């Protein structure tokens, strides 16, 4: 879009002041310094809150006036209302699979958003991603994709997540660097998914059907 992008990784210690700005000492006086959200509004930038559910709800509430009909940012310490230009865009993301009752979007926040659901890439696209990111042979990439799809279809207690494209790329990268495929799969795909030894053995047995040598 030809606009500046400002990205913030959300976490429990992120405060409203971290987004809006604060007064800081400058010699013998204090001087206001805009936070990243305030800068994004002033510049008409794309402001991206990554993993927004990791931030406290009393922090994310500051975006409410920007994400409804007002499109304004109120900076209480300055007594200033910033009207967001048309170019300003606010984007948030999170993984719904990680949600629990303590980490979810407030309904009042969720209902201000337009939702785009992003699932796993189609197999042919995922294969191209793996080849492009790791330089691995296309046939091996195809085997990794098929293994990843098989894991995603499992319903196994103690397996809270499934193999992401990121995990498949990490395994491909290890294979490309010379690690045995089965060891790469264990290290980059299976072990990051869970700590349960019987479950990992079951998954390794599944991997054996795709990587027999």
Query: What is the strand content?
Result: 15-25%
Spatial strand sequence of the major β-sheet: 1-4-7
Estimated helix fraction: 25-40%
Query: Which structural class fits the helix and strand makeup?
Result: alpha/beta
- Order of helical and strand elements: EHEEHEHEEEHHHHHH
Largest sheet: 3 strands, parallel
Gyration radius from CA atoms, angstroms: 22 Å
Low-confidence stretches: none
Give me the number of helical elements. Answer: 9
Distance between the termini: 47 Å
The overall pLDDT average reads 89
Number of strands: 7
Give the CA-based shape: elongated
What does this structure look like?
The chain is of the alpha/beta class and 213 residues long. Helices cover 38% and strands 16% of the residues. It is built from nine helices and seven strands. Strands 1-4-7 form a three-stranded parallel β-sheet, covered by helices on one side. Strands 2-3 form a two-stranded antiparallel sheet.
